[in-house]
Amino acid sequence: MDWHQLWTIISLPDNIPIVGLMFLIPFYTWYAFRQAFANDRLIDQLESDPEMAKTHHRKTQPYQKGWAREVHVWPYLLRIEFLSAIIVTAILMVWSITLDAPLEEPANPTLTMNPSKAPWYFLGLQEMLVYFDPWIAGVLMPTLIIIGLIAIPYIDTNPLGNGYYTYKQRRFAIWTFLFGFVILWCAMVVIGTLIRGPGWMWFWPGQTWDHNKLIFEVNRDLHEILGITDPILYGIFGFLVVGGFFLITAFGIHKLMTLTEFNRKILARMTLLQYLTMQVLLITMIGLPAKMAARLLFRIKYVWVTPWFNI
Amino acid sequence: MAEQTTKTTEQEQSSNGASDNGKRLFGIDPDAIKAKATEDINAFKKPTRTDLYKSIFRVKHDDTPRSRTLGVLSNVFLHLHPAKINRDAVAYNYTWGMGGISFYLFWVLTWTGVLLMFYYHPTKVQAFRDILYLEHDVPFGKLLRNMHRWGAHAMVLTVWLHMYRVFLTGSYKKPRQFNWMIGVILLVLTLLLSFTGYLLPDDQLGFWAVTVGTNMARATPLLGHEGPFGIQFGMTAYNDVRFALLGGSIVDSNALLRAYIWHCVAIPGFAATFMIVHFWRIRKDGGISGPAPMVLQKEIKPLRR
Fold first, then answer.
1. How do the pLDDT tens digits run along chain A, 311 residues long?
2. Measured between alpha carbons, how far is B291 from A42 in angstroms, rounded to an integer?
3. ipTM of the complex in this document
4. What's the alpha-carbon Rg for chain A, to the nearest Å?
5. Does residue A162 belong to the interface with chain B, where contact is any CB pair within 8 Å?
6. Which of residues 27-86 of B touch A (CB under 8 A)?
7. What is the interface size between A and B, counted as CB pairs within 8 Å?
8. CATH superfamily, with its number, for domain B98-287
9. Which residue of A has its CA nearest to B132?
10. A107 neighbourhood in chain B, CB within 8 Å
11. For chain B, what is the radius of gyration of the CA atoms?
């Protein structure tokens, strides 16, 4: 095992944010869920005790009768802002004094860097390039991520959990976001940094990044496995497979959305347009791990091959 | 007339040189000067009473609620805040402070960025040398560049965490839907700011990162010459969207200049504009979203369209 390789990657100054990410995301997830569960316990109490619900201030924050509801911004907020500015400046100063920003050789178009990596925050997109053609991984997916994020408030018809941490009242939304943000975005950034070595090949932590390593992967298209050779036939076949994936996933998502009484209630509040937008976005999102599984487990390159584009 | 006569006598006296009993200097009473000087010194002891002070700070800064309120509301930089906020809203465990830190980092990056601009030429001949110059000759140049780069990395992280918090507290819900949209745009602009800055040192790292990044633009459907239906749409390497981004078919001097202008002028301008809207809408949508009193399932109001 070559643990020094791992240290070489982690100790690279430009990779500090990824190391930070690996601690910050779990920490803040824990921090948020701790409060969410505390709130959920209070919600349970309030729901079982209508008398308490009438009089309780409905927060887990301390509360006493006679306390002012509001405090002055000066000094109670401004001192926090001032203090954070000082702390951030101090951290940034120490960081900048101890670690130098990287500077490689002058740009040289004739000498390709290996591995040639995008900036760390785009490594999720670069990782997607393994599984999809550039027009999906580099153009369609980023566009859909932006549109999907913007769409969240307009398709989430659940009125609960507005302005407080809760898990119980927003299970579907929270799982969806955790899946998209923590797994598909942050984890892919970590994979792109720590796992992907020369030639964008997969190196487990502790494996040496061997520049001479060769992998003979026989990636086949789905229709080749099944022995369909006629271009028109496998074009139609691919369309059916992708369409079938959409239908089956849509069915699965629908099942999840109607799993509980509460979910059905929220679903009833959705318009058809909201529902369809959500389905398309979620299916596309699940398309990524589905294609990853197809590639990593079955060595499938494309499922739908046409003269104009491949999926 | 009588006054005139007195003045003349005074003039005569002073022109006679030193006064007879040492009390008058050039016709002025030293005691009067002393009294004036004492007055000024005493005024310094209470600077808040001076006209100079009052002209700058328009309100008192004593410990009364009125002064505390005015101190925030009558200050151009602080008036972004309301005078008072919910007592629970200052809790760090709710807010994480990531939005404010992102804004502060944007500010730090603007300042360090402007200072860096003094030493940088966006040309193929000079760009890389300017970085070497910054690192080895400019006083604190290395610190400046390090702060700019690490600050940028930190800002990407804090913006992500800000989004994470806003999602987990459901703060994008009514009436804050639009502000979430502005926030997503700001997130994208943050990433683009960082990405355009990546090329500027003109080293291998930036060159290949931007080459990898912009190669994807080749594959844009319809608008890229390698994308689906790109060729059918008349796209070549010399007129597609990648060409527009780079100002050429390869990452070269035009790409450097374009990245520089996007990085230093255009995107910060857009980001600042959207930030103004973002902060404005926070206030207009009712301030920070919580911690809000919890709503129970049975209290959901029927939907009205």
1. 788 888 888 888 889 999 999 999 999 999 999 999 999 999 999 999 989 888 888 998 888 888 888 999 988 999 999 999 999 999 999 999 999 999 989 999 888 888 888 889 999 888 998 899 888 988 899 999 999 999 999 999 999 999 999 999 999 999 999 999 999 999 999 999 999 988 888 888 888 888 888 877 788 888 888 888 888 999 999 999 999 999 999 999 999 999 999 999 999 999 999 999 999 999 999 999 999 999 888 889 899 988 888 88
2. 14
3. 0.94
4. 25
5. yes
6. 65, 68-69, 71-72, 78, 81-86
7. 294
8. Cytochrome Bc1 Complex; Chain C (1.20.810.10)
9. A103
10. 128, 202-204, 206-207, 251
11. 32
* Shortest distance, CA B259 to any CA of chain A (angstroms): 15
Quick one: which of B45, B26, B286, B190 has its CA closest to A162? Answer: B286
DSSP string covering chain B: -HHHHHHHHHHHHHHTSS-TTS--BTTB-HHHHHHHHHHHHHHHHSGGGSHHHHHH--S--SSSHHHHHHHHHT-TTTTTS-SEEEGGGG-HHHHTTHHHHHHHHHHHHHHHHHHHHTT---STTTHHHHHHHHHHTSTTHHHHHHHHHHHHHHHHHHHHHHHHHHHHTTTTSTT-HHHHHHHHHHHHHHHHHHHHHHHTT-BHHHHHHHHHHHHHHHT-TTTSTTSTTTTTTT--TTTSHHHHHHTSSSSSHHHHHHHHHIIIIIHHHHHHHHHHHHHHHHHHTTSS--SPPP--GGGPPPP--
Residue spans of the domains in chain B: they are 2-77, 98-287
The residue behind tokens 């070497």 is: B132
Q: Which of residues 169-188 of A touch B (CB under 8 A)?
A: 169-170, 173-174, 177, 181, 186
Quick count: other Cβ atoms within 10 Å of Cβ A86?
Answer: 10
